[in-house]
Amino acid sequence: MSALTRSPDPGIPDLPGWALAPPDPAEAEQLRKRILTHVLKMPRSAGACWLWRGQRDGAGYGTIRIGGRKRLAHRVAFEAWRGPIPGGRPLHHKCSRPDCVQPWHLRPMTAGDHNRLHAAKRRRAVSTTTRVAAGDGHR
Questions:
Q1: Which residues are 108's β-sheet partners?
Q2: What are the residue boundaries of the structural domains of the chain, listed by start?
Q3: How far is CA 101 from CA 48, 77, 96, 132, in A?
Q4: What SS3 class is residue 52?
Q5: pLDDT given for residue 70 in this prediction
Q6: Could you tell me if 108 and 94 are in contact, meaning their C-beta atoms sit under 8 angstroms apart?
Q7: Which of 31, 47, 70, 135 is most open to solvent, judged by the fewest CB atoms within 10 Å of its CB?
Q8: What are the contacts of 32-40 at 24+ separation with CB within 8 A?
């Protein structure tokens, strides 16, 4: 694995089995500089979120225009720092922030796994809301 695919934060493990090819160095450097002009880095720690401060879509995901085409900023950031997204798969935000473009907060997964994960989160959120509304004090 190249240095581009390794997480700088030992608390965020590399993804086993995802041997990502590094992006073209010149193109990647250009994209990195452009992305970082739109990013607010949270307190200086290796695992902090990089919050997108550019244009966003209706769901709160950052967007950036590349080659005349609007793309999701977190996908562009992943490609610029870590390489191609395996099979064009969805990227899961481990931090649960749609405005985060930190490449090591993004995990490629199958569409089915991604949908199941989000369905489980919705069930937990509904369950918590129902209990709190019922006044049992659980969160």
A1: 91
A2: 16-108, 110-139
A3: 10, 6, 11, 32
A4: strand
A5: 94
A6: no
A7: 135
A8: 32/80, 32/81, 34/64, 35/64, 35/73, 35/76, 35/77, 35/80, 35/101, 38/62, 38/64, 38/73, 39/101
78-109 confidence digits (pLDDT tens)? 999 898 898 889 999 999 999 999 999 999 99
Structure tokens at 26: 């010149």
Q: For residue 126, give the 3-state DSSP assignment.
A: helix
Helix axes 73-82, 25-36, angle to 10 degrees: 140
* Lookup result for tokens 């809301």: 129
| Separation CA 113–CA 130 (nearest Å) | 26
Bridge-based pairing state of the strands 50-52 and 39-41: antiparallel
CA 113, chain centre distance (Å): 16
Rounded alpha-carbon distances, angstroms, from residue 29 to 46, 53, 96: 19, 20, 27
Beta bridge partners, 51, equal 40, 100
- Tokens read off for 85: 């997204």
